[in-house]
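Work Package 3 committed the consortium to producing structural models of liganded targets before the mid-term review. Because experimental data for this complex are still outstanding, the team generated a predictive model from sequence and the ligand definition alone, so that downstream docking and mutagenesis planning could proceed in parallel. The input record is reproduced below exactly as it was submitted to the modelling pipeline, together with the SMILES string for S-adenosylmethionine.
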Amino acid sequence: MRSLVILFLAACTSAPPPPPAKPAPEQHAHADHKGGMHHRFENANEWAKVFDDPARDEWQQPDRVIEALALSPAMTVADIGAGTGYFSVRLARAVSSGSVIATDIEEDMVRYMTERATREGIANLHAQLTPPEDPKLAAGSVDRILVVDVWHHLGDRRAYAAKLAAGLRPGGMIAIVDFKLDATRGPPPKHRLPADAIAADLAAAGLATEVSTIELPDQYIVIGKR
Ligand SMILES: C[S@@+](CC[C@H](N)C(=O)[O-])C[C@H]1O[C@@H](n2cnc3c(N)ncnc32)[C@H](O)[C@@H]1O
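The resulting structure, written out as tokens with the ligand in place, is given here.
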């Protein structure tokens, strides 16, 4: 457990949680993964100890991330690459008369979130398996999109941004949270992205972009508005 926490705090996504119950990661390569950091997130029960470690709250500051989304209770929100649902459950509580679509490319994450929603009595949280290159959002169907610690994993980021933008309702907003270049935790430096690069990805999708004035200790929040 301690080693998992250290992995997340020091490198966030640089290594899988032990034990490797399945074949080596390179045997699981996503065929369409182009420029992003390739990494699998199998064994959700193990990752939950890391992603949902209460100690994460101190540096992740989830309430401030959610504040950046300017939610109202009836909204539909997509949490892309939702993992074990750290943000999804908070979002679902914030949109009490709306709903949350929590996507992931890992079957076990989707299984975990589905069971978590039942266990925690969260009826408006719907976990959905998606392919790596497509968030599978219906056109103009969501008010807000949150993407936390996922952008640096994407292959063709511009193509993915275009699909997310198409899923937004007019007036909708996307918030992308990822690690600063000089962060004390996060993926290996060569896989980190400057906020400007993410803003450019969103601008190429036709969104009006800005870096949020809400500052996190190790991460930025890039906003895109339709
Ligand atoms: C570092 S975890 C972050 C999980 C969650 N967002 C959080 O903040 O706790 C990255 C997650 O993104 C998922 N992921 C990676 N590439 C993805 C893609 N192309 N589409 C959707 N999810 C993806 C991984 O399976 C993993 O669960």
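Reviewers should note the following from the model. The radius of gyration is 16 Å. These observations will guide the Year 2 experiments.
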